[in-house]
Design a protein that fits this description.
The chain is of the alpha/beta class and 418 residues long. It has three domains: 175 residues, 3-Layer(bba) Sandwich (FAD/NAD(P)-binding domain); 116 residues, FAD/NAD(P)-binding domain (3-Layer(bba) Sandwich), CATH 3.50.50.60; 78 residues, FAD/NAD-linked reductase, C-terminal dimerisation domain (Enolase-like, domain 1). Helices cover 23% and strands 29% of the residues. The chain has eleven helices and 26 strands. The two termini are 43 Å apart. The structure holds flavin-adenine dinucleotide (FAD). The site of flavin-adenine dinucleotide has 36 residues, from helix 1, strand 2, helix 9 and strand 22.
């Protein structure tokens, strides 16, 4: 059992303060209690929601197939039951690493022994004429998903998606399944090709086309037009004028670093942290989408914007806050669901650029595992509509053993035997 932490400058009641009410924050609080920490734990959460996870927002929750329960990583009652003070609808406006205090938006200050910044990321905005029109959305929060669910339900709407990344493609799929007419604008010739290459990006793109999604590629918007304050059209860089009832700008996210920057922490594509998620300030840690962490395997910084990272980092941050020797050394993992395509990916994306792509299974049937092999070793693997293989893929990556790519491609050779 860990003793409550305190410093000589603070009362013994001073404990852990977690800024941000997302998945990383909730996981960190849960881990502190699981590790036996008995001191005070306070979560400062800007949104007026019990901490929730975002993946269902663009999938089952948006489609109306999943309810609120699917969003909660911990039951709403968990916080009170575990003596964690959850301050929803409250933003932290300043952090003073010297004084060990956090200032809240009502002007009060909260002392801390250790602080965790888990402020996540916010949608990137583009300075486009017409973005202020009614019917134009970005997409990050439960409120965004609830609003778009009511727009999409019943179908028949013309939806223009600006951005062809994972979130844009997922929302496009859900909107189409609900009977809407979606046109997607993307800067790549083939959506998702920057992440998984042209061949595999084509698998996802073709599935969308089959379902009726239209693509204007490579293209972006030059103007959003409206009438009486309501969106009506989108003009594209290719000179097309698309009818639009709804426009969604999904062009990536920016880490929420304002608090950390003003506190003087080192910023480098997010808050720079060690593998133990320690920032440049003593007793201040960062985790989740906002943190750019040194990865001990690649020896380089990586800022992951994925669900599994928020969980893994929340755990590591909590253990580091307790003075344990913890490291974020997981193999990065993420997943997506688009129409009937379910996908999981593990590996080091940065190492796939010069790697050989090895396919096991059938791209045509959309049942396959794609491996990226660099210098004879698997550096990433992605299974599509094939399940229960992630542990083996991760083992192949972490073992760093030399691989026979012919065997890797042969479905008759058990993966475990390679
Ligand atoms: C629609 C959608 C679908 C996704 N789907 C997938 C998926 O299928 N697979 C996958 O791997 N990943 C997915 N992700 C990514 C995943 O959800 C994120 O990586 C994860 O949410 C990061 O968690 P986090 O706790 O770091 O940040 P967040 O979830 O962003 O939470 C941060 C919280 O901190 C709050 N905050 C910010 N500043 C302050 C402040 N100053 N004071 C107090 N609170 C503050 C914010 O309001 C926010 O509530 C998806 C994301 C979105 C938006």
């Amino acid at each position: 059992m860990n003793e409550p932490l305190s410093t000589s400058a603070h009362s013994p009641a001073v404990g852990m303060v977690i800024i941000g009410g997302g998945l990383a924050a909730a996981t960190a609080a849960e881990t502190l209690r699981k590790e036996g920490y008995a001191g005070t734990v306070t979560i400062i959460a800007e949104e007026s929601e019990t901490p929730y996870q975002r993946p269902p927002l663009s999938k089952g929750f948006l489609a109306g197939k999943e309810g609120e329960d699917a969003l909660l990583p911990l039951p709403a009652s968990w916080y009170a039951e575990n003596n964690v003070t959850l301050m929803t609808g409250t933003a932290a406006t300043a952090l003073d690493p010297q004084a060990h205090t956090v200032t809240l938006d009502d002007g009060t200050t909260l002392p801390y022994a250790k602080a965790l910044i888990a402020t996540g990321a916010a949608p990137r905005h583009i300075p486009l004429p017409g973005v202020e029109l009614k019917g134009v959305y970005t997409f990050r929060t439960k409120a965004d998903s609830v609003a778009l669910k009511s727009e999409f339900t019943g179908g028949g709407k013309n939806v223009v998606m600006i951005g062809s990344g994972w979130i844009g493609m997922e929302i496009a799929a859900t909107a189409t399944e609900l009977g809407n007419h979606v046109t997607l604008l993307g800067l790549e010739e083939v959506p998702l090709s920057a992440a998984i290459g042209t061949e595999l990006g084509t698998v996802f793109t073709n599935r969308h086309k089959e379902a009726g999604v239209k693509f204007v590629l490579p293209a972006s918007a030059t103007e959003i037009q409206g009438s009486n304050g309501v969106v009506t059209h989108v003009l594209t860089t290719t000179g097309v004028r698309l009818p639009a009832d709804i426009v969604i700008v999904a062009v990536g996210v920016i880490p929420n670093i304002a608090l950390a920057r003003e506190a003087g922490l080192t910023i480098n594509n997010g808050i720079e942290v060690t593998a133990g998620l320690q920032t440049s300030a003593p007793d201040v840690f960062a985790a989740g989408d906002v943190a750019n962490a040194m990865h001990p395997v690649t020896g380089s910084f990586a800022r992951s914007e994925h669900w599994a990272n928020a969980i893994a980092a929340g755990k590591v941050a909590a253990r580091s806050m307790l003075g344990q020797d913890a490291m974020l050394d997981d193999i990065p993992y993420f997943y997506t669901d688009q129409f009937d395509l379910g996908m999981e990916y593990s590996g080091f994306g940065a190492l796939t650029k010069d790697a050989e792509l090895v396919i096991r299974g059938s791209l045509e049937k959309r049942e396959f595992i794609a491996f990226w092999v660099l210098d004879g070793r698997v550096v990433a693997g992605m299974n599509v509509n094939m399940w229960d293989v992630q542990d083996t893929i991760k083992e192949l990556i972490s073992s760093q053993r030399n691989i026979d790519t012919l065997k890797l491609a042969d479905p008759q050779t058990p993966l475990e035997a390679i």
